[in-house]
Here is the input.
Amino acid sequence: MTRSVTIVIPARYGSSRFPGKPLLELLGKPMIQHVYEQAKACRVVNDVLVATDDERIKAAVERFGGRVVMMTEPYRTGTDRVAGVAQTHASDCFVDLQGDEILLHSDLITDLVEPFLASDAAMGTLKRRIDSDQDLHNPGVVKVTTDREGYALYFSRAPIPVVRDDPRRAAVPGLHFIHLGLYIYTRETLMRLTAFPTGVLEEAEKLEQLRALEQGIRIRVWETAHPSLRIDSPEDVPSALERLRNRETGRCIA
Here is the structure.
């Protein structure tokens, strides 16, 4: 029997680097609408909803016909907000899709959901090859390294792994990978994970997935070649707009 899958998009208005980011207008639509529409286009999920703590975001989602739930409690992370949704929404598995991760192809989610449902993994996520030295050294771009079976060894804002004998510290194809901001969990694993206190590594790197590794929850990592774009600060907006325009006109976006 196929397990049901619900995508939850946590969307906060407050952000130290970019307040109001989910409502940023991109090609005539708020950013949260771009994220929502790509999630809805995914053929292997049963439901999509936005979880927010802000009436302005709620109103914006309702204007474009999206499903939204208000989450007024103070949650530590997006994962904890997804768990709050899971307490009142029935589903076998939940996908945490960050509200600032704009997918440029809905099959990026399929690349996570399909192998997860075919596996016995408790938690999963995605990686994509790094082809830019700038991305490798950018602390805003999270990196991941895995074992031979594809389970995460560590996530970091630092350029991991370090090639000791390369003084240029250049990105190496097939060795360096970006971690993408989406996760899938079984309901049981999601509830277990959010019952744990914030971890030491999680607090240091400000990466919620490290809580799972610290508690012995293995994270299966699959690779995708599908593009996405992340907007962390106002400086990211011009390049994001260019890539979105390229997608609209059918030009290469990879």
The mean pLDDT is 92. Residues 161 and 176 are 7 Å apart (CA to CA). The domain at 5-243 is CATH 3.90.550.10 (Spore Coat Polysaccharide Biosynthesis Protein SpsA; Chain A). The two ends are 35 Å apart (CA to CA).
